[in-house]
């Protein structure tokens, strides 16, 4: 007689069900393309910046551009009288300048130069030193003279402190002026001419009156500000 099968206790659930794998992430192709394009453009931009920087550096090393130098070489003051009753100033002053081009390869075109004269922060005169009628080209390693004439009568309001300073300068026989010159220039390298540059030149000068024999005018270097 065949053996009896042993009795199985508990329910039978069948084979184990395998665990479902999580869905795989599929990157969006459009976003990937955008990131790739942005990366390429960024690399191109970096390369261009580096090339431009190298070009500027090479140009600077080869040309070695320098700002022009400016001096007040002579000053002639024959009248500077202020009438406090009607605030009128009579003045007559001539200044001679020297502009020097220190560059070895750059020429300078002086297209326009305007000079403004101040006393105690009050502007009393201006003069067109260079206009299109007398503009000129300054060659390398050369100097050129210029002159400004301030002459006339003008109403200038000076306060008590400024009048006191004026009387003190008159007593000392030396007047302190501030002269600002507005330039419009161009640079030339070979056949290439640059666009307009508009530097400002600032001159602080002490001008003796002619009857002051103990004082003479000293050549004064001016500051060039681009």
TrEMBL record:
Keyword entries, A-Z: Membrane, Transmembrane, Transmembrane helix
Keyword Membrane among UniProt keywords: yes
Signal sequence, start to end: none
Subcellular compartments: Membrane
Residues spanning the membrane: 34-63
Subcellular location, principal: membrane
BP term (GO), one: defense response to other organism
Coiled-coil portions: none
Gene Ontology, cellular component aspect: plasma membrane; plasmodesma
Domain of life, per lineage: Eukaryota
Protein name: Late embryogenesis abundant protein LEA-2 subgroup domain-containing protein
The organism of origin for this protein: Vigna angularis var. angularis
